[in-house]
Specification:
The complex is a heterodimer of chains A (1257) and B (139). Chain A is α+β, with helices and mostly antiparallel strands and 1257 residues long. Chain A is built from 50 helices and 34 strands. In chain A, helix 7 crosses helix 11, helix 14 crosses helix 16 and helix 34 packs antiparallel against helix 35. Chain A is globular. The N terminus of chain A is likely disordered. Chain B is 79% helix and 0% strand. In chain B, 29% of the residues are buried. Chain A: Its main location: cytoplasm.
Chain lengths: 1257, 139
């Protein structure tokens, strides 16, 4: 795939043989072209490219990595292509290249994975190939060419929730990030400029358009180039041929930026990129915003917003991180396209990657085995390999030393990592300097550029390290860094334009003081992205996706005292097992880990020399094992820094038998069903059995998969499904005080051997208990029996319960006083009434069994107690209040869809997760569903892709002697196929010493989610009112601390840094959330369920729950729409959650995560009602409407595609309610308008005044 | 008679000292990851009640034997023990709950508490020893 695409741009000649870019090509190229350095193959091709030389250097660095990737990710076939791409980009676009690579494989899956995105860098490696310039461009071009596939893939990405994650992570990273952004954007609603994808084929046109019309990011481009390479590449399909480039050149020249861009452009493709940037710059004049976006890889972001928001919007985005933001209105199309494609490519690569690795490595994971650690990580596999000092020539001399990195020695890093696959890194480096003379110059040129922009704060500047004298390339980098910094400046400019500013922006923009009481439209019109840590580009590209791993402070304070001064929570939010479309899977005999702290080798370690690496968490120096010296991707020896483990911050290892205490367990599923009168009346059995029948073949597992069923009312019933029986046998145990298993061997049966019996049972079950009069529920004994049944193997128990357990162990009393539901005083009974369920859960957890609870009740069922069975066994909780299969069809439909997801999603068994962090930091509290077995080890009997976790951190020792801190999450699990795997995520963040920097790096969404988790704990351990006070105090303290220390402005208003401007709004939203609200009638179970969700939802879903998104949908247009698959998805802007935004003439959609409301105003246009709802006028709309009819009108199509798109972005299907302005159901809708006053709570403005008052006290 | 009271107190105090040491050892095992939270908590919870009873007996004994100073010295600790025991939430598995011991620095506070108690019991031990000797001499 990639090949074709690639070819277009660069001129065929450019490409080199590419095969894998790897290795060979790069190698050759590098040495061959002394000046440019291997990566730069481009360079050779074009002098102009050289400008980028600075970049070129970078590229080299990148290249190396890319090489790895390329090989890894790309399949054999694809590899070549990729490699080419890599070459192209190599210098400039390393990132893009990555994308390119990925493109080759067009994976269908939605989630774009960041990792892969990184992988894409690999392409850079190729660098050597001249043709490669496509790199960025190529990637884009590829995309274009392959457009149709890619698109589809894109679509997928969007559709799937997983995608999001990918996106988020990316931002920081070059292309990948962009992709990610896109994905995110799409998810978030961002206008996916990507729509333009289709145009991809026309890539060139785009490019042109860009030039001509787009205003694009002017200046920053240069800076970007290096980085932006990615962006540009993405956005503009490099394909644009030379012609465009020329124009660009001109533009560039004008701006003075030229040099930069050109250098980058080395290759034609590169040219395109630069050009774009330049052009964009030129255009930039028009739109500051655009420029901003461009500056960073942000471009992607830009896409997002695009259409609607005009330039202004884009400005906002500028956030330092850039990654997220920037949706330049103008460009939407281009960027998107590029992004998407990459993602696809990436995905595939990821897969391929794995394969390759395996092949080479040869080692296979053997299931058997034994022993050793209980905990995954404990084991030591590592071994050092042989060490020796051999130094091969050079491989990258100091590949990844932190210091170097920080110092700005990036080049080194890059080079090391980048070293193209084929050639040895060392040579590259060496050669690069010499050859690359041109490059350096460019870099210099670039610098001026960067300087032109406003300087960043000192703290940030640090990041840009000085150039390394030794390494010419370094200078370029520095230039780049500067650029990056510059960006912020741009942002600032842009910020003035629009209110869209994203929080993410770091630095200036994020510190811009905002007077909250005077800023009327505080909510951006586009979704808020995660801020990108202020790291140098290399690290940014390597860093973990924010979808998987986020920290509340992207700038870590140096000391606990500083943290205390900032009054902000410090913690991590994790989504470790989310669906990834691309993921490098590594099979290797030795998994390289630090000998003392057992950290897995990761992109942020430093290689002291060829044979030794320094752990980035404990700073111990370890040997590099012999096996690690060989890079399976490039098939080269002596480049440990180019191994996929060191090129990706999210990787998955196939674990050896050292990581097993017992042979990997098979997938075992047990269903425990309530069949009392109440349950039969509710009718869930029909839905469950139907779903199971439909999904029986899709249950994750291998040939060993086992399944079993139990039912219970006042007795416990077992079903003998042993193969050979003519029909299922029901065995009843009525001794519930001492439950035993009647026939232990035949209750859990092999799914495939007994499939017919299972189907018979499922068909019969719904009718078996139809005449039951048994109203009691012996849940406790049934669970005990389930535990006995599961304990030999472990697995998953799914419990369906419809009422309060009333018999046997674990029986519960009703504790809710309905009269207290709206009490403003004390809310009691938030904690469990008995420790029975907790003990049971711990027993289950010890036997690797997770209990998932489906509570379908119409009355109080004491979820607070029942939830314990899932909370501590790492299960999940689903709650369907007022469930009835006929009276409440929307709940029934939701159950059906949730079950489909539940039954078919990925699952990991007998898992443990360990979180490690740099010495000096310590974790003290964990949130989520699991059992903390020892200080940093979470025991997860099951892990599912929808589970999120949070960790609170404290700073125990001063971090003054380190500039970066890292966090590593290692999740060891048994896949449903019986493979033992370890998924490792590594996040790297800078350390800052000033309070202003701490505020500049706040990730408001992460902070809110962490606060919500802490508030849940507080409500249970203390009281709800304490928790509410604590939430308000969090706002008061942080804003007053900011006001008294950082802000010099003496305003009468309430001043917050831009990064925190949404903080009060979100806290108010939390106070009005079901979990914490008072004064509004809230059923205890609803409240407890909301708390459970806060604890175990990943951030993206939790944010929607806390602060819903409101869109106006009666005037959807295609402006700014994105294309997902074959559909056009309109991207309406976000409205603030206030009734003032609701006009009687409009129709609004509110996305609350698990529920959608469509509110129809009284005066709503009859055309809309007729076209979309299928009724002639407002009066004829029924009170209960949960579906939009499929009408063949344009507005109906738009509305449905928008809703479908939103739905596809989350794992569990939300219910849709159409709410008429007059209907009683509207109170539900209005509850979510959190900026308005309710009888029991402040309006947003009142809340601000309240906070201000508290501050003044 | 007085001597008997103090001999008993001394023995009781010895037991409490051993218990405090046991708590400290077990908690530090947990801290070092030698045992898991589940087994640590079940071990410790077993001894919470004996500790409470043992200490309450001494306190009451001092009250009965009209040793006001020693009684007042013991009172806060005894009160704390009882308070802690009573205030365990219904859903928890005891004073030491394996699901929460790693949260919010609980492990550290338990450790600190065990240390303080050890110091307190040592102090009491010498006081009882002194009082016992004094009582024996007086006899």
């Amino acid at each position: 795939m990639s090949a074709p695409a690639g070819s277009p741009h660069p001129a065929a000649s450019a490409r080199i043989p590419p095969k894998l870019g790897g290795a060979a090509a790069p190698g050759a190229a590098a040495p061959a072209v002394p000046g440019l350095g291997p990566h730069q193959q481009n360079g050779p091709a074009q002098n102009q490219m050289q400008v980028p030389s600075g970049y070129g250097l970078h590229p080299q660095n990148y290249i190396a990595p890319s090489g790895h990737y390329s090989q890894g990710p790309g399949k054999m076939t694809s590899l070549p292509l990729e490699s080419q791409c890599a070459d192209y980009y190599c210098g400039l676009y390393t990132i893009p290249t990555q994308n390119v690579v990925t493109p080759s494989t067009a994976s269908q899956q939605p989630g774009a994975q960041q990792m892969y995105g990184r992988v894409p860098p690999a392409p850079h490696i190729v660098g050597s190939t001249p043709g490669s310039f496509q790199g960025a461009a190529a990637s884009a071009s590829h995309l274009h060419t392959s457009a149709s596939q890619p698109y589809s893939s894109f679509v997928n990405h969007y559709s799937s929730p997983a995608v999001y994650s990918a996106n988020s992570s990316v931002a920081s990273q070059g292309f990948p990030s962009t992709c990610g952004h896109y994905a995110l954007s799409t998810l978030s609603n961002a206008a996916y400029p990507s729509v333009s994808y289709p145009s991809l084929p026309a890539g060139d046109p785009y490019g042109q358009q860009i030039f001509t019309s787009q205003s694009a990011p002017t200046v920053r481009p240069t800076g970007d180039h290096s980085f932006s390479g990615q962006n540009t590449a993405i956005s503009h399909p490099s394909p644009l041929p030379p012609p465009p480039s020329q124009p660009y050149h001109q533009q560039q020249s004008l701006s003075g930026y030229n040099t930069f861009s050109w250098s980058a452009s080395g290759l034609p493709s590169t040219q395109d990129n630069p050009i774009r940037n330049h052009t964009s710059l030129a255009a930039a004049n028009n739109n500051l915003t655009n420029t901003v976006a461009d500056s960073l890889s942000c471009s992607v972001m830009q896409n997002v917003q695009p259409p609607k928001s005009s330039p202004v919007v884009s400005t906002v985005l500028s956030g330092a991180s850039s990654a997220r933001t920037p949706p330049a209105a103008n460009r939407p199309v281009e960027p998107v396209a590029s992004v998407t494609q990459p993602s696809e490519l990436l995905q595939q690569k990821g897969m391929q990657y794995g394969e390759y690795v395996n092949n080479q490595a040869s080692s296979a994971p053997t299931p058997l085995s034994s022993t050793s650690d209980d905990e995954e990580e404990e084991e030591e596999d590592e071994e050092a390999g042989v060490d020796s000092s051999s130094t091969t020539s050079s491989a990258s001399p100091m590949p990844n030393s932190y210091d170097a990195l920080e110092g700005g020695s990036y080049p080194d890093m890059l080079s090391s990592s980048a070293s193209s696959p084929a050639p040895d890194p060392a040579p590259d480096v060496d050669s690069a300097p010499a050859p690359a003379p041109a490059a350096p110059q460019p870099s210099k040129m670039a610098k001026p550029f960067g300087y032109g922009y406003p300087t960043l704060q000192p703290g940030y500047q640090n990041a840009t390290a000085p150039l390394n004298p030794g390494v010419p390339p370094s200078s370029p980098y520095s230039g780049l860094q500067q650029y990056a910094q510059q960006y912020p400046g741009m942002n600032q400019l842009s910020s003035s334009l629009g209110g869209l500013s994203l929080q993410s922006s770091t630095q200036p923009e994020s510190l811009r003081p905002v007077n909250l009481t005077q800023e009327r439209n505080i909510l951006p019109m586009t979704p808020v992205w995660a801020p990108v840590p202020n790291l140098n580009l290399d690290l940014k590209k390597l860093n973990c996706s924010p979808d998987s791993f986020r920290c509340t402070l992207t700038n870590i304070p140096q000391t606990q005292a500083l943290l205390n001064k900032a009054k902000l929570p410090l913690g991590l939010l994790l989504h470790p097992f989310r669906d990834l479309t691309q993921l490098p899977v590594i099979t290797s005999n030795t998994i390289v880990r630090c000998r003392s702290c057992r950290t897995y080798i990761n992109p942020f370690v430093s290689f002291i020399d060829q044979r030794r690496w320094k752990c980035n968490l404990c700073y111990r120096v370890n040997d590099v094992p012999e096996e690690f010296m060989y890079n399976p991707l490039t098939r080269s020896y002596g480049e440990p820094h180019k191994r996929p483990e060191v090129q990706n911050s999210t990787v998955e290892f196939i674990a050896s038998s050292d990581y097993m205490l017992r042979p990997p367990q098979p997938a075992v599923y047990l269903f425990v069903l309530d069949v009392s009168h109440n349950a039969v009346e509710a009718g869930y059995l029909t839905i469950l059995c139907q779903s199971l029948l439909e999904n029986l073949d899709k249950l994750p597992g291998d040939s060993r998969t086992r399944i079993g069923f139990m039912t219970f009312d006042s007795t416990v019933h077992f079903y003998n499904l042993q193969e050979g029986l003519s029909q299922p046998q029901m065995l009843i145990v009525s001794d519930i005080d001492d439950v035993f298993l009647p026939t232990p061997d035949s209750l859990l049966v092999n799914l495939y051997e007994s499939k017919e019996l299972i189907k018979d049972l499922l068909n019969a079950l719904p009718n078996m208990f139809i005449n039951t009069r048994e109203t009691h529920s012996a849940l406790g004994p049934a669970l005990q029996a389930a535990f006995k049944l599961m304990s030999p193997t472990g697995g998953r128990v799914s419990v369906f319960q419809t009422q309060l357990p009333s018999l046997g162990a674990g029986l519960l009393q009703s504790r809710e006083d309905p009269n207290q539901r709206s009490s403003t005083k004390v809310v009691q009974h938030l904690g469990p009434a008995t420790d029975f369920y907790k003990k049971l859960a711990l027993d289950c957890s010890g036997q690797q069994t997770a209990v998932d609870l489906f509570l379908l009740s119409s009355q109080y069922s004491d979820l607070a107690s029942l939830a314990c069975m899932s909370k501590y066994s790492a299960g999940c909780i689903y709650y369907y209040p007022s469930f009835h299969c006929t009276h409440n069809p929307s709940q029934a439909e939701k159950l059906q869809k949730d079950l489909k997801r539940y039954l078919t999603r990925k699952i990991g068994f007998e898992a443990v997760m360990r979180i490690r962090c740099t010495k000096g930091l310590s974790m003290h509290t964990f949130h989520g569903n699991f059992f903390v077995r020892s200080t940093d080890l979470l025991s997860l009997a099951n892990i599912n892709p929808d589970a999120g976790f949070a960790v609170q951190l404290s700073i125990e020792e001063s971090l003054a002697d380190t500039a970066l801190v890292c966090f590593q999450t290692a999740l060891l699990y048994t896949s449903s196929k019986g493979e033992r795997r370890i998924r490792v995520h590594t996040l790297c963040l800078p350390v800052v010493s000033s309070l202003a920097d701490v505020y500049a790096g706040v990730d408001v969404q992460a902070a809110i989610c962490l606060l919500a988790n802490m508030a849940v704990d507080r409500s249970i351990s203390s009281s709800l009112s304490d928790a509410r006070d604590a939430l308000v105090n969090a706002v008061v303290d942080s804003l007053s601390a900011y006001g008294s220390t950082v802000s010099n402005l003496q305003h009468s208003g309430l001043i917050a840094p831009s990064s925190l401007k949404l903080f009060p709004l979100y806290v108010l939203a939390l106070l009005k959330q079901k979990a914490f609200r008072t004064g509004t009638s809230t059923r205890l179970d609803d409240r407890v369920y909301a708390m459970c969700q806060i604890k175990c939802q990943p951030l993206v879903h939790l944010m929607k729950m806390i602060h819903p998104n409101l869109y106006r949908i009666d005037r959807l247009t295609d402006e700014g729409a994105i294309h997902v698959n074959d559909r056009v998805v309109p991207q309406p802007s976000l409205q603030k959650l206030s009734a003032e935004k609701l006009t009687r003439e409009g129709a609004f959609l509110m996305d609350c995560g698990s529920v959608f409301y469509i509110w129809i105003g009284k005066g709503c246009d009859n055309n809309f009602i007729e076209d979309v709802l299928g009724y002639p006028n407002f009066a004829s709309i029924p009170q209960k409407m949960t579906h939009l009819p499929e009408l063949d009108t344009l507005s109906s199509e738009r509305a449905r595609s928008f809703i479908t798109w939103l739905r596809d972005s989350r794992p569990l299907s939300p219910i849709l309610h159409v709410v008429k302005d007059e209907s009683p159901a509207k109170t539900e809708f209005f509850q979510h308008l959190i900026e308005d006053r309710t009888e029991a709570a402040f309006s947003y403005y009142e809340f601000l005044l309240h906070v201000q008052q508290q501050i003044c006290k | 008679m007085e001597a008997v009271v103090f001999v008993f107190s001394l023995l009781d105090c010895c037991a409490l000292i051993f218990l405090a040491v046991y708590f400290i050892i077990t908690l530090s095992d947990l801290e070092c990851d030698y045992i898991n939270a589940r087994s640590c908590c079940s071990k410790l919870n077993k001894w919470v009640l004996p500790e409470l009873v043992g200490h309450t007996i001494v306190t009451v004994l001092m009250l009965i034997s009209l040793h006001w100073f020693i009684f007042l010295l013991n009172l806060p600790v005894a009160t704390w023990n009882i308070y802690r025991f009573i205030m365990v939430p219904s859903g928890n598995m005891g004073v030491f709950d394996p699901t929460e011991i790693h949260n919010r620095g609980q492990l550290k506070s338990h450790m600190k508490e065990a240390m303080i108690k050890l110091g307190f019991h040592l102090l009491c031990f010498f006081m009882y020893l002194y009082s016992m000797i004094l009582a024996l001499i007086n006899d």
